[in-house]
Amino acid sequence: MIMFTVDCVVVLSGPGSVVSFKQPVGVAVSAVGNEVFVLDAGNSRLAVLDGSSLRPRRYVTGVPGLEERGAVGLALTRGGDAARGESVVLVNWRTRQLTQLSTSAAATADDLVIRQVCMAGQYFTCHSDICQKVRCAVTAGSKVMAAQHR
């Protein structure tokens, strides 16, 4: 049995908080940029917070992967591409898309999306196989894994 203690619990939303989330479904912490990424499905956005103060740096909205309040899976790549560094991987259960986004604050709307893959057909037998409970992770070798519980 593994036992551990938690030294600090941070509540990012609620009375007195700097940022408000409607349906936060994922959190990832950057290893290189001192940033915390919060996937806020209810607002169809990705909040990028300062890793020290937890104050908002920017919000990513209106890009593929975040539409229809369907983004439920969030993971970070760990710099598999030296030119890009880390990137964010999102799973959207409504659009059945896996989307990789740049984490660069300098990225424009045109170069924010690195790639997008439809999960239906190739990875799942049909669109109805993909449900709201799908999540994702990225291996050390930058392979993206998607899994869901039925």
How would you characterize the overall build of this protein?
The structure is a single chain. The two termini are 27 Å apart. The chain has no helices and 10 strands. It has 150 residues and is mainly β. Strand 3 (45-50) and strand 4 (56-61) form a beta hairpin. The chain has a single domain (24-147), classed as Methylamine Dehydrogenase, Chain H (7 Propeller). The strands form 3 sheets. The protein has a 4-stranded antiparallel beta sheet, with no helix packed on it. It has a 4-stranded antiparallel beta sheet with strand order 5-6-7-8, with no helix packed on it. A two-stranded antiparallel sheet has the order 9-10.
The CATH topology, please? Methylamine Dehydrogenase, Chain H
Total helical segments: 0
The top level CATH class name? Mainly Beta
Q: Largest sheet at a glance?
A: 4 strands, antiparallel
* Uncertain segments: none
| Strand element count | 10
The end-to-end span amounts to 27 Å
CATH architecture: 7 Propeller
Average of the residue pLDDT scores: 75
What is the radius of gyration computed over CA atoms, rounded to a whole number of angstroms? 16 Å
- Domains, number: 1
Structural class: mainly beta
Strand content: 35-45%
